[in-house]
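Two records follow; treat each independently.
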Amino acid sequence: MAGAVAQVFTIPVSVITTRQQTQPKGDKRGLLDTGREVVHSEDGWPGLWRGLKASLILVVNPAITYGAYQRLREGFFAGKVNLRPWESFFLGALSKALATIVTQPLIVAKVGLQSRPPPARQGKPFQSFLEVMSYISENEGPLALFKGLAPQITKGVLVQGLLMMTKERMEILFIVLFAHLRKLRNTKLQRLADAATSQAKGALPVLTR
């Protein structure tokens, strides 16, 4: 839910950035000028939220990643409580690669929605990510929906692999830390109890015959 709300607020920046990255060499514009170009186009203000539907669907990418991570962990290291760093990295990298392959066509479609229309469309913008995917498949072939996959996987593998490796180490560290703090707390309480017992014994009257 939080990811979806964040997309609503950040998608205009994504649209402007994509436009800037795909501008012709001799037509480079600044952030505000590119934003005005989008607003003054056929789409108007809603043009700043182009690709929102695709972005909302792409919010499931982390869910796919973590779901795949748990499944792969059960498959490769069933019953193992604590993973080694290289095992965590391997699972994180593989799960992210799978999630990227599944969602890459949507990423390509989102970029197509946010970019200027190709010359063949004579300035007519795409209306949906399905239209973009259909156009790419017809003109460039189905494999074109996965263009840019290698850099995406490389980036995702490194980031997610390191993230999961660090996550596993931090979980172990916090478990050890909490166990140590609990032990210190119990020791302190025992000392207080012993001190209170000693004081109580010292306060008892001495009986003489």
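The next record belongs to a different protein.
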Amino acid sequence: MPKKKVAQNIAHNLSYIAAWYFFSTALSIYNKNLMGKDNWNFNLPLFVSSIHAGLHFVITACLMHFWPDKFDARRSGKGGRLTIHSYVTQVVPCAIAAALEICMANASLMYITLSFYTMIKSSTPIWVLVFAFFFRLEKPRMSLILIIGVIVIGVVLTVAGEAQFDMTGFILVLMASVMSGLRWSMTQMLLQKDTLGMDNPIATLYYISPIMFVLMSILSLVIEDPFVEFAQSAFFSSFQAGMTTLMMAGGGGFLAFAMTVAEFKLIKNTGTVTLSVAGISKEIVIISLSMLIFGDRLTFVNLLGLLVSISGIMAYNYDKIRKLQHGSLGSGDYEILSQHSRHHKGDNTD
């Protein structure tokens, strides 16, 4: 691969990573302020998640309708056909995994600090690899396994010194990490299949967000019973208070939309393992901000774990850049990049 092409690919991916970092970090801080017991304490995380999913469908539906040439492969004549069988067997499972991840992640913020949430969520690379191997998106490489092992050790160390441990919050965020790994792998498979007409983030989100909205709404009605909250809570004591609350709850939906689009673009261009490892450094940024904004405190063991994780991130990035420069594109991360270059040179969504 020519050096100029390598530089362009790296520049594109760094821009996606930067956008993902910004919107994801902003969303984490926003949600903690909204749902944290020591902050606004709006204890309807499933209801909030359903609002976000509904907003995503409305936004993507508008984009698909007004700019079909750019986002809708079927209407633009680029091909792609989504059958009922494909929708049920491929899109629905991805949407369910995404909905469960978001619901459990948001709910965990009611019980644990943002820094502890972030450190446990950093275990996602383990589950990404497990599902990537299972779905044959990645071929096991010893160097990759060793690098991920270093990151895992770093995550374990950061957790070992947690002083404000809560079992409910821990289980919720751990299960969210598992669902995240499954969701990323399924999303990668959807974005790779041009025959489904879902080769861009807007189209993918358009098809999965209705399922997410329905599932999240059902979970909210069964678990949270929001109508009781509407009748009793000060958040809905008047029409003005209710509208303010809904606007606050929905505001994060726009951050979540921008974050998801950047995330999907990164998955399509590089693969799930790159996203998961790049996410570790994003988590470090969030931990640092949580210390500054919410007063979270880290022990020496926590800090040691962060340093170990950073070492793993640097090793992985070096390994990826070295392979790109030598043109050794393989399965998973590198194969996706190669396919994208060959088949989507006319894609103007970049």
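Discussion point: Residues 328-350 have pLDDT under 50 and may be disordered. How would you locate this feature using only the token line?
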